[in-house]
Give the backbone structure.
Amino acid sequence: MKIFAISRLPRRLAALGVLSALAGSVLVPAAALAAPAQAGACGGDVKCIIAFGDARIAERQAALTKLGTKIGDQLSKGHITNAQAAPLQAQVTASQGDMTAIKTKLDAETTATAARQDVHDIYWKYRIFAVVIPKTTRTAFYDLMTNVDAKLKGLEPKIEDAISKAPAGEKAQLNQLYSDYKAQLSEAESQLDAALGQFDTLTVSNYNTARATFETALTDLRNDENTAHTGLRKAAGDLHQIRQILAGSKGGASATPSATASS
Amino acid sequence: MTWSRHIRRRGVFMLVTLVLVLALALAACGGRAARGANGGQPSQQTQQTQQANPSAQDVINADNQIQGDLGNMNDLQSSADTDYSAQENEVQP
């Protein structure tokens, strides 16, 4: 039995060797790819620095493409207007151009020092992830909420008229809902006004040199927008209840107009 | 001769009747299709609403649209709340 086990030992060692070689072949390229992420890992290897910078540029280009698609989608569905979409798309296009330009510059570098400076600029000069994408997305969100608010606000005369013609027994509840509707819209509008004041502080310069100011403005903007969003959702909830009561009134339409039309 | 003329007359009469019936059937189908293209005739209930409280129908239509907008607003909020700042931590190769 022992002789048998010993005779198998070289085979086991050979199998172990093959496995180690396989593992090595998988791990070594992974380590080589990750290596440029370590500070100074490229040393004086210009091509290594360029490859690292190109990878960071590619990440930013992919995120910008996604953002551009999102803005285009909002525009095509009519959620934001051409006038609102134009500056957002211009920002995306400009940033994509910046990334293309820095890539051209980086790829042509012949010294490690110059290539490292370009990599530094990818972060420092453009701040795609820290400034461009959050600011542009928040602007689109702001624009969208402004449009929803305008729709809800514009509906007020219709709601008032509909309530005035509703059965007397339903007017108290309808007026209560309408009162909350107006209060929620008012709150959303004041939050949107406050949000508007934060955008100018969200600059690359402030991110680089006045980080606390930048972070405060971004946090305030996030809170203002999210509170406005809550107000608009509540107003929409009030509207939905008003609709259900009106639809249930004598002579009112069905809660689902499509079903009414087909009946 | 008289019998054959009689049979021919009956044949023509039946053919005319058949053409008339077909024309009426086609006209009926055409009318229905035209109404369908216009979104169908509103139901009696909807007509009553529009006559009794026309603004109520506007509120209902607006609500349908707003409920659709809410989903889109939630999606955009989710995108806006995504934090990418970790990718801005500078690493030098």
